[in-house]
Design the sequence.
């Protein structure tokens, strides 16, 4: 598993470097760049030197965030809020734009990201998971990290079977993290996932709720941020559940109740929504319809891509570009912002579908 992840990251870097150094992103950018883009971020934190950082993809440094803002402005992209996106998509040929969004609602957004964005006058949206803001959520990807980092082996019970993983060396810790993450991601039941994680936390001595309260913005801090005209608060469900694994009633409740909690705490009903995890395994046509039925102005996925002038019909399934902590290079940003990688990837997927149907 570790080798597969490393190979995948190397392949992505190779593709991005090839597009950059060949100049293809310059040549094809005018055809692929679309109307604008939405950036996905999670954590903004100073660089760490820990050998074991399995969630590093979710973290970028404040310095890189600042360089991203400067680089996109140098490319003549205008930073706008999500509120403006529908109208801009109805104006073909207008100036390209960029939106900044943060998923989950981590405290470091206030501590490290907000000063950078405030200084540059950049609007941004925080998609809040209401249980996280209450301090009672479960960041299971962090629970796995803490359990592995403090133990020489971990054991977890899933579906009545106990899996054990050696965690003595850094390599073993990474292998255990990936294996555990894969097993948990494969579960088709949020109830099973949470039960397994609670058992792991108890076994490893990890206080998951205390970690949530320490890591995530509370309602008072969110109210402080929401008072700033640059900040928009969006919804991100109650528990950060993978919606596509839920029944229709539970999925609707996650979306509707999450927005309701935000409205009750902050006095404003969120107009924008982000699907937890956000890929095709987490959100599809049913979830897009639910977001529309519940009255959101936009809803964003994590499916990679830029926004086209024709995206207006798909405001409930907007693509985004992830600022991945494993790829903190401005050349990668420039290539991704050009829209060429996602156009290439989508073209290859369509070709695969056509070949499969032949």
Sequence:
């Amino acid at each position: 598993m570790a080798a597969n992840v490393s190979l995948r990251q190397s392949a992505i870097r190779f593709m991005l470097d090839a597009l950059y150094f060949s100049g293809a992103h310059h040549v094809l950018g005018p055809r692929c760049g679309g109307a604008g883009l939405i950036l996905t971020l999670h954590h903004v934190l100073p660089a760490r030197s820990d050998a074991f950082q399995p969630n590093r993809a979710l973290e970028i440094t404040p310095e890189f965030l600042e360089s991203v803002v400067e680089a996109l402005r140098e490319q003549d992209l205008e930073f706008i809020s999500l509120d403006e996106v529908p109208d801009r998509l109805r104006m073909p040929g207008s100036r390209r734009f960029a939106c900044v969004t943060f998923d989950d609602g981590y405290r470091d957004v206030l501590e490290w990201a907000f000063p950078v964005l405030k200084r540059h006058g950049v609007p941004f949206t925080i998609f809040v998971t209401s249980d996280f803001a209450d301090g009672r959520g479960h960041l299971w990807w962090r629970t796995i990290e803490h359990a592995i980092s403090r133990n020489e082996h971990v054991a977890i019970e899933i579906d009545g079977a106990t899996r054990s993983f050696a965690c003595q060396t850094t390599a073993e810790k990474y292998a255990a993290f990936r294996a555990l993450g894969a097993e948990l991601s494969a579960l088709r039941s949020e109830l099973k996932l949470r039960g397994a994680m609670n058992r792991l936390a108890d076994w490893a001595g990890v206080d998951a709720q205390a970690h949530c309260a320490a890591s995530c913005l509370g309602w008072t801090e969110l109210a402080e941020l929401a008072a700033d005209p640059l900040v928009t608060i969006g919804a991100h469900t109650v528990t950060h559940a993978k919606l596509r694994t839920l029944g229709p009633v539970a999925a609707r409740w996650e979306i509707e109740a999450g927005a309701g909690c935000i409205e009750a705490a902050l006095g404003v009903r969120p107009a924008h929504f982000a699907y937890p995890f956000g890929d095709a395994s987490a959100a599809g046509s049913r979830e897009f319809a639910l977001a529309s039925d519940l009255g959101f102005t936009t809803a964003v996925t994590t499916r990679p891509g830029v926004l086209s002038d024709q995206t207006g019909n798909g405001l409930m399934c907007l693509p985004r570009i992830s600022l991945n902590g494993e790829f903190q290079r401005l050349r990668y940003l420039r290539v991704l912002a050009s829209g060429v990688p996602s156009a290439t990837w989508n073209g290859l997927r369509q070709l695969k579908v056509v070949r499969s149907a032949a």
In short: Residues 204 and 225 are 35 Å apart (CA to CA). Residues 2-137+217-357 form a domain with the TIM Barrel fold (CATH 3.20.20.370).
